[in-house]
């Protein structure tokens, strides 16, 4: 069976890829839009619920405020303690209480009823329409609520209005749907000995706080901590246990008080119509776009295959180690033309790199031969110096012999120890030999002093750092009389070495010092005289990075070289 040409494969691959992208894009768009609608509904409900929470809290606070004002009135305490002489006194007290309750209802339209009840059943109540007083029965169920109110004093106990049932006088507080707030006026161990104030907040007023969340067929409700519905935008739901309905999105918002919860039930069918409309519209657009892309891909694939084929031919030549490839003609497609050009240039650079590697191998072999040759040079130098020394001793020339001995001591560590660091005692010994050579040269006109604590002798120190700095003193700072004083001070502070090399100078050239400091800063050599200092800067930078510096400065008739590095 004949294999398909790669160009046909390319077209089939493009069509398959576009079809797969269409399916995936359609599914992702559908799911995203569906979830986005759900999130938007939930977000809107949460925003409305937050506002409803504030409004409902304000209603409760106003009711508590009015109850607290009444609580401070002597009427409440007189009624609670039964402080009246006879029935006439009780009747007069009841009338005053009813007038006070009517004032509260007139001031606060959110309240539907205000009452005070003693633990023995004596009750006075005012509602929007009626006023009553007398005895009422206190069954065990309601007695437990009163007991909880006493325990939670001075806080209010909020319960559904149906807890009053049909008990004679007190049931008037719940003739209209309401939420009741109960609080004991005092705090006694027995319910019969205490008195209670009862507020009835109209369910209609509560519903107004959150009914703005309802739209497009949804319903909202307020639940107490037992999950009982105490307010609802749907009729016939009051005082039932909440049960989520099927095919509804449930948005829950716990209130920050009374353990109440606001719930919004949004039927899924409300936004499924929008999802289907968006799905069909998206599918039509995606299919149209896919057909256009396929048509364009088939046409342009023919134009793109020519430079791709040229690239494949060149890659095949490179695979056969044929690096001499020609640059193909341009087709007008800048991307593919640039790709072909870059590939050709890369192959040419590869060819040049291979040539450089071959040359590097040859150079490496030559360097190894030179290294073997240089191993012979130190031995030859040592033997030659020993021969000259013996000749000087044979001719009784002691100074020359001493000079040769010092020179031998100086060059021995240079050739024998390849390490970059050694102990400070080794650096000082090397420096003493160098100064000894200079003493012979200057015939006593050189004064030298070293300050370094013996506790630093075993510290690790970079090799040959001080000698180039001292050598700089002889090169740049000689006096006309050739007399010179050099002082070296080495100290270590907080993990950093600070070294000062001071020498006298008959005249200090400030401009020259600035020029040298600039060269040290940028590690730039201007002549053979600066090689030693530049070498020190480079080696300290290699060993300690940015934590090192070498500077020169003038102090009177002295030039100070300062070396700082952190170990």
Polypeptide structure, described:
A hairpin with a 3-residue loop joins strand 2 and strand 3. Helix 8 packs antiparallel against helix 9 and helix 9 packs antiparallel against helix 10. The chain is built from 13 helices and 17 strands. It is elongated and about 150 Å long. The chain has 567 residues and is of the alpha+beta class. Helices cover 53% and strands 19% of the residues. The strands form four sheets. It has a six-stranded antiparallel β-sheet, with helices on both faces. It has a five-stranded mixed β-sheet with strand order 12-14-15-17-16. It has three domains: 319 residues, Beta-Lactamase; 51 residues; 150 residues, Heat Shock Protein 90 (2-Layer Sandwich). The longest helix is centred in the first third of the chain and has 66 residues. It is a multi-pass membrane protein. GO terms for molecular function: ATP binding; phosphorelay sensor kinase activity. It holds the Pfam family His_kinase. Its main location: membrane. It is an enzyme of class 2 (transferase).
